[in-house]
Specification:
The complex is a heterodimer of chains A (about 325) and B (about 475). Chain A has about 325 residues and is an alpha/beta fold. In chain A, about 55% of the residues lie in helices and about 15% in strands. In chain A, helix 1 packs across helix 2 (about 20-35), helix 12 packs across helix 13 and helix 13 packs across helix 14. Chain B is about 60% helix and about 10% strand. The chains are: A alpha/beta (about 325), B alpha/beta (about 475).
């Protein structure tokens, strides 16, 4: 369990995840108040990563439920394994006829079979899906419900029931209560507005693109071989690109991709040609790339003017 | 502290944030867990527990600062300006106050609580007293800025400003009688005078803060919703920009709704008759279940936009809306007209939406400065593009039908309606003005399947929703 907010930051740093104080505060609160966190924010800011890091830093297992349209209880909670049940009844035919042996009437036979049905509706034949697994887990776990906004609203309503008291009722088995309340993180890209009822039950965390300073330390951490100057330039360029009106703004993972690409090419600083060649690592639409190219061209020129005055003077002398 | 959080929550609620009882309790539990020492984590904790929509975050931030530090900040600030006007540093300021305290003790002067807090610059105490006085004067009920004077006055009264000035006057006399070095005496006189003025300023600030708390309501909460209801005619430059964002968002929402609707449709309903027919070969035992999987075809849309001055804003958003929804339609063709007619489909394919709209509206396609002539534009359409209309096409015409008394040529619409799936006319004018003056709406009306008034975003949304259904 986290001891304090600073402890959260420290342990996350050990897992190579740099976070600001706001994120740490919410995570700390969620673990202590046993409340789910609803994490929102643009794609690629590390929402899913956050759940993984929480699990790793507390040394807990992570159970992940990926939401999609049409996801239902059978896929999220549990399912009976019909094929196995059928197979068992086939194999155990002899045994069953033995049980039915002395039956004198149809009613009697049914009664006898009914007496045995808890054999077939037992833990053995149930396929636990992520929600049930997280509830029946012997230890506390981290449950990640990813992209909840992709699921239907009926599923959301069903989820509410589970999240509010962490009990699941399986008609044949009875009510299963969580031994340890899992740490739950729900992520959403805001494809649709979540219902108020769900929001009410969660702590809310909005993760935005990181500031320049934070992004720089992320790049340094995740791309070890990068030169100081290049890292700073990449981050500054990406921060500039985000301010443009684009179809898709570059996320942190794209910044990292770019930084890695550039280090692979042995670059130690950005120049126009390099930008034109590698910009496709950052931006995924042709129109966006064109826009960013124009903007970065101006940016690189001013940069060169700023840093390169002394070099410029040398050239003048030569002429 | 608890009382303060309750009050703050009430403030959030009056400003349009929905904070439920359980969220309120969560906030308390969070504070119990974290304590109130660290201001930032206090703020984050309340935010995580009570603010669940990202559009509410800026409102929350403003209110938090206003509520938890607005007054304290003002008191702090006034002490700072005092130091500046007296041209002394913080240490000198403190020692001056210490000297004064010593003097008071020596002179055996009894001061009221307010005077003591003021002269000793006891920020916390002052803040508390100001707050209480504002409460007593019922300053929370302030609603308009012209009431500021009245509430300032009554707050000052309940604080006892009159008594204070008498008291300080007496104090100044007593100090004058005491045997002090003239320099110090003057400094003290100045200090006391200035503090008195400061207090008036603080009172004013306290009332202003109450007013600002209300103001947030008007400003932020109603922003988006009112934007959607606001007529396109009266948008300012800034609102145009915000409207563009709103249109994009609305289009996104519609896209989601429609895609879910479509997926549902795909699953299909149980089809009894088909199942029976298919299962005849099994002797009527329903072996194969048949579902009703009718594939809905995407509508083809043909937009005719009037871009004359009077309806330009509407056309702008109409075009933006339609083009942000491209993937919901199998084909969109758009035409703009004033008196000439020009096709803009190509333009939209080559440029991004915003730029294309700008180009279209600034006259690269047709002359946009002519007088509207619907009849002529329709005739051109009939001559050149009638073949583009087939039984899957929805034709949307956007315009106010103000024809400058030219020939309306409504027979074109009749022909179009005969070929098209439906003809929709969107008129940005209020319904009651249709048909008056040079409006030819009444003549065009019989040949349209749907005629809607469309002068704000919500109406536009409804129309398009109807279209993709």
């Amino acid at each position: 369990m986290f001891l304090s907010i600073d402890d959260v930051i420290r342990r996350f740093a050990e897992q190579r995840y740099i976070c600001n104080r706001r994120i740490a505060t919410v995570v700390y609160l969620a673990t202590h108040l046993e409340k789910p966190i609803l994490v929102e924010g643009p794609a690629g800011v590390g929402k899913t990563e956050l759940a993984k890091v929480v699990a790793a830093s507390l040394q807990l297992n992570l159970i992940r439920l990926q939401c999609y349209e049409g996801l239902d209880e059978a896929k999220a909670l549990y399912e009976w394994e019909y094929a196995k049940q059928l197979l068992y009844t086939q194999i155990l035919k002899d045994k069953i006829s033995e049980v039915l042996g002395g039956a004198t009437s149809l009613r009697d036979a049914v009664e006898r079979i009914a007496a045995q049905d808890d054999v077939f509706f037992s833990d053995r034949f149930i396929v636990p899906r992520p929600l049930l697994r997280s509830i029946t887990a012997p230890q506390r776990v981290v449950l990640l419900i990813d992209e909840i906004d992709k699921s239907d609203s009926e599923f959301e309503a069903f989820l509410l029931e589970v999240l509010s008291d962490f009990t699941v009722s399986v008609p044949e088995l009875g009510t299963l209560r969580a031994k340890h309340i899992p740490i739950v993180l729900l992520t959403s890209n805001n494809a649709r507005e979540m219902s108020d009822a769900l929001k009410r039950r969660c702590l809310h965390l909005y993760i935005d693109f990181p500031g320049a300073q934070q992004e720089l330390s992320i790049v340094r951490l995740k791309v070890p071989g990068i030169s100081e100057k290049l890292a700073a330039q990449v981050v500054e360029a990406v921060q500039r690109i985000r301010k443009l009106d684009l179809k898709k703004s570059p996320s942190i993972s794209e910044t990292l991709d770019w930084a890695k690409t550039l280090t692979l090419l042995n670059a130690d600083q950005l120049d126009e040609e390099l930008v034109n060649d590698t910009l496709s690592a950052v931006l995924k639409y042709e129109g966006d790339i064109r826009k960013a190219q124009d903007d970065l061209k101006a940016f690189l020129q001013t940069q060169r003017a700023r840093t390169g005055t002394e070099q410029g003077d040398d050239k003048d002398l030569l002429h | 502290m608890d009382a303060k959080i309750v009050e703050f929550t009430t403030l959030l609620r009056t400003n349009g944030l929905r904070v439920s009882m359980s969220e309120h309790l969560d906030a308390f539990r969070a504070i119990a867990e974290l304590g109130v020492e660290d201001r930032e984590s206090f703020k984050d904790a309340l935010r995580a527990a009570m603010v669940k929509r990202s559009i509410d975050v800026p409102v929350y931030d403003d209110l938090f600062d206003l509520y938890f530090s607005g007054l304290g900040e003002a008191i702090h600030q006034s002490a700072k300006t005092l130091m500046e006007t007296m041209q002394i540093g913080e240490q000198d300021f403190q020692s001056l106050m210490d000297r004064l305290a010593d003097l008071l003790k020596n002179l055996d002067v009894e001061l009221s609580e307010l005077a003591r807090a003021l002269l000793q610059n006891d920020t916390g105490r002052l803040e508390q007293m100001l707050r209480d006085a504002a409460d007593q004067a019922n300053a929370q009920s302030i609603e308009r800025s012209y009431q500021e004077g009245r509430f300032t006055h009554s707050t000052a009264q309940s604080l006892g400003l009159g008594g204070l000035s008498e008291e300080l006057e007496r104090l100044k006399q007593q100090l004058g009688r005491a045997d002090l070095p003239p320099e110090l005496a003057e400094q003290l006189q100045q200090f006391i005078d200035q503090r008195q003025r400061d207090l008036r300023e603080m009172i004013r600030r306290a009332v202003r803060i109450e007013l600002e708390k209300r103001d947030q309501t008007q400003r932020e909460r109603n922003r988006l919703s009112s934007l959607a209801e606001k007529s396109f005619y009266y948008l300012s430059e800034d609102e145009l920009r915000r409207m563009r964002e709103a249109v994009t968002k609305l289009a996104q929402r519609l896209k989601n709704v429609v895609s879910i609707r479509r997926k549902r449709g795909k699953r299909g309903k149980f089809d009894v008759s088909d199942t029976l027919r298919k299962n005849l070969q099994y002797g009527g035992v329903p072996f194969r279940i048949q579902f009703d999987r009718r594939i809905r075809d995407k509508p083809q849309v043909l937009v005719l936009c009037d871009v004359s001055d009077s309806v330009r804003n509407v056309s702008r958003f109409m075009l933006q809306f339609v083009y942000s929804l491209q993937d919901l339609y199998s084909r969109v063709r758009s035409f703009i007209f004033v008196s000439e007619l020009g096709e803009t489909t190509q333009l939209f394919e080559e440029n991004d939406t915003q730029r294309a709209i700008e180009l279209a509206l600034t006259g690269t396609v047709i002359n946009v400065f002519a007088h509207s002539d619907f009849g002529r534009a329709f005739r051109t359409f009939h001559r050149d593009y009638l073949g583009a209309v087939n039984n899957r096409t929805t034709v949307i015409i956007l315009g106010d039908a103000r024809n400058n008394y030219n020939l309306p040529h409504e027979w074109v619409l009749r022909d179009v309606q005969a070929r098209a799936k439906q003809v929709i006319w969107l008129n940005p004018e209020r319904k009651m003005t249709w048909g008056f003056g040079d409006s030819e709406m009444d003549r065009y009306l019989p040949f349209c399947d749907l005629v809607e008034e469309c002068c704000n975003l919500n109406q536009l949304y409804r129309v398009i929703d109807h279209l993709v259904r």
